[in-house]
Amino acid sequence: MAGKGNDKRGGKITTREQDYPQWYQDIIREGDLAEPAKVVKGCMVIKPHGYAVWEKIQRDLDGRFKATGHKNAYFPLLVPQSFITKEAEHVEGFAPELAVVTHAGGQKLEEPYVVRPTSETIIGHFFAKWIDSHRDLPMLVNQWANVMRWELRTRMFLRTTEFLWQEGHTAHANHAEAKEEVRRMLDTYGEFCEEILAMPVVRGVKTESEKFAGAVQSQCIEALMQDGKALQAGTSHDLGQNFGRAFDVRFQNEGGELEYVWQTSWGVSTRLIGGLIMTHSDDDGLILPPRVAPIHAVIVPIFKNDEQRAAVMEAAVRIKTALQRVDIANDDSPYRDFLAVEVDDRDMRPGAKYYEWERKGVPMRIELGPRDLEKGQVCVKMRLGTAAGEGKEFLPEEEFISGVRTRLRTFQDALLERARARLADQTVTLDDWEQFKSTFKGDKSQFAWCHWDGTAETEAKIKEETKVTIRCIPLPGQGPAAEDGTCIFSGKPSKGRVLMAKAY
RNA sequence: CGGGGUGUGGCGCAGUUUGGUAGCGCGCCUGCUUUGGGAGCAGGAAGCCGAAGGUUCGAAUCCUUUCACCCCGACCA
C-alpha cells in the first residue's frame, strides 16, 4: 500500500506537501543515489545506483552525438588563468566562481591555473591550432568531463561545486551552419528528455541577461518540476565569432581569405538526474523510467524451508535468464538495452525488500513463492499503477515473459504522459499583473505564458518583486502563437508571450 | 559575504545550564526461531566527545583560539 512505509523503519521520506526540498533530499538518500561529500564543500558522492543512472544517460546521449557526426575528445582539467580573461563577457560571467590552483609540486606557479568551469577557452586554443582551412570545418567534438564552479549555494544534482557533464564544441565556416548546429543539438536534447527520461520540455531562447557568458544567443530546454518550478535541463549556445576572435581561430575560406570560425557549444549535466527525480518520484520514493533504470526488475523469492527455497530459486533464476534476453531499446536504436534483473535472496522479510526496492525506484517487482510455482504463475507489481499494470497481477510465466517488453515500454510511455498532463495542468496564460502576483505568491510557481516588453529593466523588476524569471522566449511551435499584446508588468507593447516561472 | 545552526561509535541524537571519566535508538556481528508488505529473542563489537591551547585534583561539559560542514539570502548547469 502506498504511503505506508513512512515513519516506520528504514528511513523517513518527508512528504512533498510537508516540505518539498526536504522530500527531494530524502529521495536521494533513500533511493541510494548520492550523499553530500561533507569533507569537500558543496560536493557530492554519486553512489553506484545514482552513477548507473548517469551511465544510462551517457550511453544514449553519446549515441545521439555520434549519429550527428560528433567525436569525443578530452581536454585538460586545468586551464591557464589568462585563457579565461581573453573573452570579456566570459571572464565577467565566470570569474566569481572559479577555483584557482596557485601551487603545485611544492612551488608557486608562474601562472595560476583555473579548474575548468567550462572548456570554451582551452578548446578555442586547440581549435586555433587544428583549423587552417575551410576543409577542416565543421569541427565537431564532444567531451565528457567534470567541471567546477564555486557556487555559493548547492543542492545535490541540481547545483554542486563539482559536477559531471558533457560539453559539445563545434566550429563552422559560416553563421547559418553554426545556427543549424545549435538548434540540432537543442532538439537532440529535447528528444532525449522526452524519449528516455520521460520528461517533457519547452524549447526556447534565453533573454540577454540569462544567456551564457560569451554567447551571441543561448537556447535552452526548460522542464517543469512537481512544485511548479522550472529546471533548465540543457543549453545550446551560438557563440558567434566571439571565441574565434579571442583565440584567433581562423580559417582560409574558398575565396582564399582569412576568416574567424563560427562556434557553438552545448551541454547537459548530472542535473538531469535532479530533473528526473522531481518529474516522476512520489512520497514512497524514487520512480525511474525503464530506459534509465539501472535495474528493471527485482525478483523476490519467498519460501519457508530449504526444499521450497531450492524450488523457488530455480524458478527465479529461470525467469531472470529469460528476462535478461529482453531488449527494450527502440527498434532503430544504435545499442541494445537488455533488462537488468536482480534476484534478491537476502535473508530479510519480503516486505522489507519490497519497501527498499520501491524507494530505489525499480520499475517492476516479481514475487515468487510456492503458491506461484504450483500454478505456474508469477506475481508482478509495477512501481506505479499505470496502463502498464495496476496492483499485484498474477500471470502465467510464459505470458508474463512474452509481454514484458511491451509492459515496460507502456510504463515508460505512461510516465511521459503523466508528466505531460502535469505540464499542461500547471501551465497558464496570464495577462493581469495582480493575477500574476497571486500565481507566484510565496513559494508558489508554475509555468506562465505572459507578454513582455523585451527590456532588461522590466525583466529585472519582475524578478526583484516576485523572484520569477523569464525562462525562455519560445521557439516556433513551443508556446502560444506569436501575437501582439501588452507587457504584463509595464503595459508597453509586446510581440509575443514568453515563459515565466521561478527556477532552480 | 551577511544571518542562523551543528560538530559525541557507521547513521540519528541525548548528555553541556549545575565539571566526576560517555549513554539511547537504528544499523552492524554471532546464534536460534522466522520469511506472501518494514521479524523476534539472546549474546557481542565499536566512540579517548571536530582540532589546538588554557583553567582545574579532575573537562564532552567552563574559557580562548581555530577548522569544517549544513540551512536561509545575493550568483549559476
Question: What descriptors fit this protein?
Answer:
504 residues; alpha+beta; BirA Bifunctional Protein, domain 2; Rossmann fold; 25 strands; globular; disordered N terminus; RNA-binding
Describe the SSE topology.
Layout: H1 20-30, E1 34-36, E2 44-46, H2 48-67, E3 71-72, E4 78-80, H3 81-84, H4 88-94, E5 100-104, E6 107-115, H5 120-130, E7 139-148, E8 162-172, H6 175-195, E9 201-205, E10 217-224, E11 230-240, H7 242-246, E12 250-252, E13 258-260, E14 262-269, H8 271-280, E15 297-301, H9 306-323, E16 341-343, H10 350-359, E17 364-368, H11 370-375, E18 377-382, E19 392-396, H12 397-425, E20 427-429, H13 433-439, E21 447-451, H14 456-466, E22 469-474, E23 485-486, E24 493-494, E25 497-501
Parallel strand pairs: 3-7, 15-16, 15-17, 20-21
Antiparallel strand pairs: 1-2, 4-6, 5-6, 7-8, 8-14, 9-10, 9-22, 10-11, 11-14, 12-13, 17-18, 18-19, 21-25, 22-25, 23-24
This protein binds one RNA strand of 77 nucleotides through residues 1, 4-5, 8-10, 36, 38-39, 41, 93-94, 96-97, 118, 147, 149, 151-153, 158-159, 163, 165, 231-235, 267-272, 300, 302-304, 347-356, 367, 369-372, 379, 392, 504.
Oligomer description:
single chain
Strand coverage percent: 25-35%
Please state the CA-atom Rg, rounded to the nearest Å. Answer: 25 Å
* Count of helical stretches: 14
- What is the total number of structural domains? 3
Helix- and strand-based class?
A: alpha+beta
Number of strands: 25
Q: Output the strand order for the largest sheet.
A: 3-7-8-14-11-10-9-22-25-21-20
Average pLDDT, rounded to a whole number, is 93
